[in-house]
Amino acid sequence: VQLQASGGGLVQPGGSLRLSCAASGSIFSSSVMGWYRQAPGKQRELVAVISGDSPDYADFVKGRFTISRDNAKNTVYLQMNSLKPEDTAVYYCNLHPVGRTYSYWGQGTLVTVSS
After folding, report:
1. What are phi and psi of 8, to 5 degrees?
2. Nearest residue to 63 (alpha-carbon basis) of 42, 45, 84, 39
3. What are the percentages of helix, strand and coil residues in the chain, rounded to 5?
4. How many Cα atoms are found within 13 Å in the side-chain-facing hemisphere of 32?
């Protein structure tokens, strides 16, 4: 399985970005997909996950970010609105096959929120 994340960039506070992560292979639709982020000097943290059609979010993005998936395209999205400077980080997508103890990571895409 390979994951290719895209969509990062520089955005002003209050702006929006949409991240995409395309997966290879045939296990996408049966896997839990997630977005994580890692800011400089900090540990990687969970942002949002989607299992089937059920999303879940970290408290610090609730109401601002939306995770979704398109199983026909093997792609997971993260719509990020009302971005804040503290959202600046490298964002990684993750694919966790159901029932497995391992997961796969994308290469990361940098999001910078700054005026």
Report:
1. -70, 170
2. 84
3. 10, 55, 40
4. 16
| Segment 39-72, tens digit of pLDDT | 999 999 999 999 999 999 999 999 999 999 999 9
CA distance 89 to 99: 29
**Least confident piece of the model among 14-18, 25-29, 106-110:** 25-29
DSSP output for 39-89: -TTS--EEEEEEETTEEEE-GGGTTTEEEEEETTTTEEEEEE-S--GGG-E
Q: How far apart are CA 51 and CA 97, in angstroms?
A: 10
* C-alpha dist (Å) from residue 49 to 11, 15, 84: 23, 22, 20
Q: What is the DSSP letter of 25?
A: S
The residue type found at 18 is R
